Each structure stands twice: as structure tokens, then as C-alpha cells.
Amino acid sequence: MSPLRGEHATAVPVDSDSRLELVRQVNPNELDVDPILPESVWARLRQLVSERQQEPQLMRAGLSPTRSVLFTGPPGVGKSMAAKWLAREIERPLLVLDLSSVMSSYLGRSGANVRYVLDYAKTVESILLLDEFDAIAKRRDDSSEIGELKRLVTVLLQEVDDWPSTGLLLAATNHPDLLDPAVWRRFEMLVNFPMPTDEQVSQAVRMFMGENAGVDDEMVSLVSAASAGASFNDIERELHRIRRESIVLASGLREALLRLVHERVAELD
Fold first, then answer.
1. Do β-strands 94-97 and 127-130 pair in parallel, antiparallel, or remain unpaired?
2. Which of 174, 182, 223 is nearest to 203 (CA)?
3. What are phi and psi of 23, to 5 degrees?
4. What is the pLDDT of residues 94-136, one digit of tens each?
């Protein structure tokens, strides 16, 4: 069932002590809806897909497709979903670095684990996502960090420079201010994911309520106004909670949504 079952690759790398796999293999076909993103982000994502589809034309011009992309933006605005969308459209398996397995208490082991993952990802035509990138690519002038993490940043910079055009390296961070300054110029494309606009919040509310929710436009507008400033992840979590509550308490979705609005209004000054 592995998305890599058709690839002639070495075994998935594991931590030598815990024997836990250092990467998670994500099936991009599990993405049943497209992410809600601004047109500026969609333009970059579509370009990445088009480059892979027109790789021969690029090669004839002496160019190669984009090899490395850095996603920045607050939590819950669609960075991980965008990675899944790219994997689905490009038809490549998505590998996600598992930080809980990679980071080791043994001196020097974390850097070795990251190198194992990067070397493995180079052997298959895949998309590698380094989520929470700021955890392994922090500023090297941070006096609170130990020498091992600083050496790890140097390793990462070298790997980004040498990434093969057969794969695509994605890095995502919620805290771009923590990244080492040298990281920014290593990535060939930078994509910033902003907080959702009012229109996108309304679109998300409709989507997460469900197609057969039976809620009128007035209630959608009310819930959208109460959700202003929230991320897509926050909206999804709250609306799924409300839908479950309405079923468990048999109170009706409209009444449950009104309770949500009252909670939000109570938080206002």
C-alpha cells in the first residue's frame, strides 16, 4: 500500500535506537477538497505543476524545474494542504520529515538522521516536505543553541543547493523570523500564505458546514463575521465540533451555531 511501492529505492530510513521511521509517506489522493488560497499563491502552485509537465521544453532551454520551495505563513492557512495538492497534481508520493523521530538526545544523531532522510528522498522521484522547518534551520547566531544544531543548518544549506531536479523539496515554517538568514537565498521559490480574507472565511464556513447543512445565507454571514481573524484550521475545528454537538444534543445545527456566535461575541471588548 506504500505510495513508493513502484520505486526501486532503499528501505525507508529509521532511527538506529528507536527504530522509528524518519519519514511519513502520505497518500496525496486522500485530499478530497482543494485548499482555499489567494490567487497569488495559486499562481505559484500552478507554475510548479506546469514546470513538471513541460520539463522537456525547459531542458531544451538549458533550464530545470524548480527544485526547492519555502512556504511561510501563520499556522492553519493551508501550507500542508498545498503540499498534498502539489503531490496529487504532479503524481508524486509525498514524504514528510517526522521531527519526533529525527530529533535525538544523542549528540550528533539528529544531524545524521536528517542526512539519512535527505539522501533517501534523493533516490526516489518524490516530494519531500520539511514541516516546521524553523526547528531544524534556526539562526546560527542564536547563542542558546548548541553546536550540533548549528552544524545541522550547514548540512541543510548544502543539501538544498545540491537537490536534484528529479525531486521537489518543500519547507514550511510558521516562524520565518527564526530561520537562519542564509536559508532564504537557497530556495528557488518563496511562497507566503497570508491569513484568510473575509471572502475566504465565508467560503471556508460553507465548505466545513457540509453541503447538506441546510443553513441560510444569513447564518453563514453571521458565523463568518464571528470567525474573522481565524485560520482555516481553526474554522474547520470549531465547525466540526459544532456539527458533532448538534447531533449529540439533538439541538439542531442553527441553535448550535448561534451558541458559537454568542461565545465569540462574549470575547469582544
1. parallel
2. 223
3. -130, 150
4. 999 877 667 654 556 777 778 888 888 888 888 999 988 887 7
